[in-house]
Specification:
351 residues; alpha/beta; Metallo-beta-lactamase, Chain A; six-stranded mixed β-sheet; globular
Amino acid sequence: MSYRWLPRLTRRTRLAAVLALSLAAMPAALALAEPSDLPWHLGAKGFRNLDSSYNYTMSGRALSLVRRAFTKEPPRGAPPRPIANDGAELRANGQHPTVTWVGHATLLVQLAGVNILTDPIWSDHVGPPVFGVSRLVPPGIRFEDLPRIQAVVISHDHYDHLDLPTVQRLAREHQPTFFVPLGLGPWLAERGVTNVVELDWWQSRTFHGLTFTATPAQHGSGRGLLDQNERLWASWAITGSGKRFFFGGDTGYTKAMAEIGRRLGPFDVAALPIGGYSAFTARHPNHVNPEEALQLFDDLRGRVFVPMHWGTFALNREPFREPPDRLLAEALKRGEEESIALLSQGQSISW
């Protein structure tokens, strides 16, 4: 679907146009509702989270950014070492389902002959000037060694999940279809990426025999101070050929996400974030800690848990080994240690 004409419209008109174009993909329960009737829609003000207790103020976020800018010390401990992966087996793979952790929230998912990337980042630095962060562990597979990518899912527009140089390079060299949350289509079109499918929460689109469904997350969006929450954020369910894969993107813990497991689970593999929680002494509203991540995994009715969003960038304050160590300790306590597939960058598993 091309959005070349959308940048000429106002933001409110663009949003209405995108909703009209994607209406056919909506489940029946939502197809009958106007956008203003959906609880996460705020009209011209953008979007909000489902949890009424959610509180993540701009002042708190600004203080966190300033503190990070002036404390360049990376997290304590040595970052994990990647596993060499030249991509040969992945390029030769036909139908066998695999998941490869490239780093941070970037995974290569192979399912039913379709090669899918999640939140792809191959840049050495992400973020705006001054406030950006550097990559401490190289990608687990070189960009040049990737198989042909047919689909890309983006969870939201934060710099460490939507890396514009990588997205533009994928659009040039692989011409994939980009599956994005509502509001990101026009933003990408203005930057030359036009093969985009925009979806609201619970909307689905079939692609090469797979179903891509945008699902809720507790997070936010924005590339700067003036566009906060104008574009939606999401997690993703990808299903087909008797398999179910869940990509958590970035999220805080909310019981509301258990609805994903009830509607679309159980999931054979759930890739969930486990890092980025230490900026708050109490419960972080936007990032799950390892124990919350495991609870979310159970809520989703997951079978194999692939941890992500840790050990790649100088982004978080917790020591590098803390997130996986805490996750494994909690899994052992719950008797779920065999469900954890703790990967190194470049490592692949079959599923």
